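ASSEMBLY PREDICTION REQUEST
Request ID: AP-0331
Submitted by: J.K., bench scientist
Number of chains: two
Total residues: 606
Priority: normal
Notes: Please return the full assembly, not individual chains.
Input sequences:
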Amino acid sequence: MGHQVLTGAERRHARLRKFIDRVLPIILSVAVFIAVATVASLLLTVIITGGHRLSWNLILNYPSANPEEAGMRSAILGSIFTVGLSALICVPLSIATAIYLVEYSRGGRLSSLLRYNIANLAGVPSVVFGVVALGFLAYWLGMGRTVITGAFTLAILTLPLVTVTCVEALKAVPDDLRLGAYALGATTLQVVRRISLPRALPMMLTGGILGISRALGEAAPILVVSGILFIREDPTSLFSKFTVMPLQLYNWISRPQPAFIELSSAGIIILLLILLALNGVAIALRQYLMRRIGQTWR
Amino acid sequence: MVAETTSVEKLKRSIDRRRYMDRIFYILFLLSTLVSTAALIIIFATLGLESFGFFAHVSIVEFLTSTKWTVLFAEKHFGVLPLLNATILTSLIAIAVAAPLGVMIALFLSEYASANTRSVVKPLVETLAGIPTVVYGYFALYFVTPNLLKPLWEGLQLHNALAVGLMIGVLIIPIVASISDDAMAAVPADLRLAAYAVGSRKSDVALRVVLPAALSGVSASIILAFARAMGETMIAAIAGGFRSILTFNIGESMQTMTAYIAQVATGDAPHGTIEYQSLFAVGLFLLVITAVLNYIGIRVVRRWAIKY
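STATUS: Completed
Returned structure:
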């Protein structure tokens, strides 16, 4: 290298750059730390405030003006009805869409338009889905502010998310396998049924569960569709009035009495536990199916 | 001879049947794909038609220029500006949080984190987007405002735009981080190696090579995150309050467009009234703004995607 003659300013500049080089990774990890710390303090606050209020009453009882007895039975059932039904609509639609986009379309103008529209649908604010469902499904089609309207709203809301995962699942299947089958004279449908779909299914199911957990936490569109924050009645049919867990929580959060704040914290713990369990199931299911199908190529 | 022809015919029939099934399923799959497009058309048509009823009563000029929004009161004014102002203010605060943090996290993930660290940190950051937004609203109202902000700011109201913006910011960090991370991953290794070859330090590569090269992806992530922030409802409804007044004081309660929709939906707005129709006018306005932002964002992403 040899000795270089540096002026004072240059030396200071070099020292500064060296200093920046040292501290940059630290500064960047602070950003990560802030994100993680936010989640941690959020969880801590909820547990400290509401941990002692966890009880079976919270799950089994109907909402009540008395916070000691109040539960979210009707909201839990409402969530199961709406979100379950929405998954039954959304997951098959997403898989079919993904099959069209990946296996059938030849990449022409139509398919790029369809892809573009899916991206656009993903950008629509969730509350707008609720407003449209209220006007179109509930009033124009006369479905009312009911479970089935809520289910369709959530299904269309989660459609882009689940579709994107399904598309990726199909794209991850190596083309060699498809080409081999085509070379033997298989139709596209046969390739889908025997080659692509079985291999893509684990990841598709993970996507479906991802959609379900998104739908479970979604409050705004259901708020507009149902208009009800709490109800002392179980949903019994597709045309029942209903509420969902996040809305029951919204109701409790909006009441200023400390007892209701504790109650909402306990309710949040239950909602978060359900979401955690769902994600755990997604991971476990994926691993189980992967092993069973024997995806050695991965 | 006879046996041979029948077996050939059988084979032909079987092939025909397969082709036939293939066509049927092709049509089924195509129809499913059209659902998203149909949904988009229904969204615009429904909002447009119901807004038509709204704008039959209210002039568009009043809607866009009046500074009073008192649709739920006896004396009605229909100026969307207070709602728009609250939406933009909270979203700007959110971006002020999410843009620097998200980009820093992306830089950390793409330039500094080992594969192992990455596999832990990335899903951890993604969980921020998976937490239900009512939970963020709760956190803003009962933790951030009283414990973090109140000690620093005496005049802060219980419901305020600042806490709303901060929490929306946390919610959209993963959007900025993951799109920026993708953009940085798309920067060719050649550029990094060339920079190292002329004696760059790691921080120079990160800040002066990778960040500028990924800039269009990074800006797209910020635009898309801003659109997401504008559409966020529950945080604004819980922690921002329902006070539709034009103010620039972020320590005060103010109602965003989304919070207005939430308020009307839970209140008494019978089908066909002006209150009911205002839902669609505000919804359409919100959708148009976010659609324009998303369009710009997607265009920018596309341009960056083919660059290298």
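REVIEWER COMMENTS: Chain A has two domains: 8-53, 59-293.
SIGN-OFF: pending second reviewer
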